[in-house]
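Z., the sequence and structure:
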Amino acid sequence: MDTKEHFTLDESFDFKIIKDLSLDQLNILSSDVRELIIDRCSEFGGHLSSNLGIVNLTIALFRSFDFNKDKVIFDIGHYTYPYKILTGRPLRNLRLENGTDGFQRMNESKYDFYDAGHSSTSISACVGFAKARDFKRENYHCLAVVGDGGIANGLCFEALNNLIVDNTKIIIILNDNEMSISPTIGGLSCILKGIKYNPFASYVFKDANFEYIGPVDGDNFKEMAKAFERAKKTKRSVLVHVKTKKGLGYKYAAEDKTGEFHYVNPFEKDTGHPKSNFKLGIASFSETFASLMDEEMANNKNAIAICPSTTVGAALTEVFSKYPLRTFDCGISEEHSAVFAASLGVNGYHPYLFMYSTFLQRAYDEIIHDITRLNVPCTILIDRAGLVGADGETHQGIYDDSFFFSIPNIALAMPHDIEDAKKLFKLATTYDHPFAIRFTPNYKVKNDDFTSTKNIKFGSWEVVKKGKNKKAVILSIGPHINDIYRIFKDDENVTIINALFMKEYNKEEIEKLSSYKKVYIYDPYGVETGFCSNVLLELNRINYKGKVKTRAIPLQYITKGTKEEQEKRISVDVDSFVSDFKEFIAQ
């Protein structure tokens, strides 16, 4: 380490030195950490803006606390890059199979005290840590670092509600940058902004029996040190309100007001633009459904678009800008979004609920209790379905098709290409009941992909390629059918069926399968208890006499890596399927 110029931020870095650094040295360390984050995100992709904004706050935490003893839990955990760097993890191969995880992971480091990937779990977890500390009669601080978007989620309110009457102490660090992915919305956000101009607004927290400290400048090390020392001394739970600047240290991220730099794919540092070949030959389902939503909003005054803080990721920015009165970004409030959609459906509107598969899990009860039980017209556009790659266990979109099979009154479909997407969306506009369409964000387009030539009939499957006999049939879904078609298009013994409708399909489709000697069901986008199991059950009900085999994602948590690495690791890649299918029909 040369404290006159730069710090060596590798596995040898010892965070104990931070307590003794001068103000000038702290600023150099801050600059070095930011530069490393920019370098790694430009190379591997990742969460950029949120990590840049929390650098000084993270350094300040190391000055005031001892994480060999004290416990810190970062909400969601996607802005722990500075923390990882300062605990000897310089983001090598960030988010790759053999590299540093993009979130807190207990199996990665002794300094990661809890796992998270979804918003607003930190305060609840921190209360649990504090209770365990008290039960064991130990003495250390428990901290929850939560953003101003995350703290507005109902789960945080449940934790705060219990903490008010709980006889334990935690320290809540509110990282307030007035942004979630995009700018924060809602009443609590207004209160936090108002505290700066009206200190009496802080009594929202004080009246709830919390000590309130702030607002504190998240770039001022002296202010933060003073606030944290006060927080350590108070006997009751305390909220330290720290104002930070998302994207600080990188021009394009700092000036971003829509959320484009919240999460980035590999990019050119000089321009902020994605690397030139990143989207080459890629078709986007997300952009297609956003465009279709734009058209529907123009033609149907009863169409309403809703999303929980994923406007940018769902490519809906332009739609929300054009139709501000009929578009709703509900913030990190998946449960509210679902009930809100159901109530609009009851009142004669057609809500379109855009939600990532991993976040849809949080609205599971409301889908059952409100949307499907009331059987209202509501279209759920499920983005990021299937394996998601680098974000790992907490973000896989592989469970939704499985839990949908346990819910009445909802149809489920999945397009294999853009034309399928357009036809399914058109069906959804006239369907008066709950309808979910799940899709990967994008897929690679090749010249010899097959394209559906017929209009889609509700509940029907499509014979992509018909064999000359009834020896074997492949039943599959999603973009990988393109690869299957390419491999078997000239094999006269093989029929290929695109199972567009995964749920609420016509029972005649199962009857048609029964005429084949062998049926192979291939679903690389969902777990084995989903579509595959459902079709097996239906075949059993009709007493199918032939042979059946399935291949789907095993019921387990899938760790990070590229999608291709994940597919091969769990043997749902096309090559593994083809090899197994050939052996199956040769038996």
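Residues 462-586 form a domain with the Rossmann fold fold (CATH 3.40.50.920). The first strand starts at residue 46 and ends at 47.

Let me know what you think.
H.
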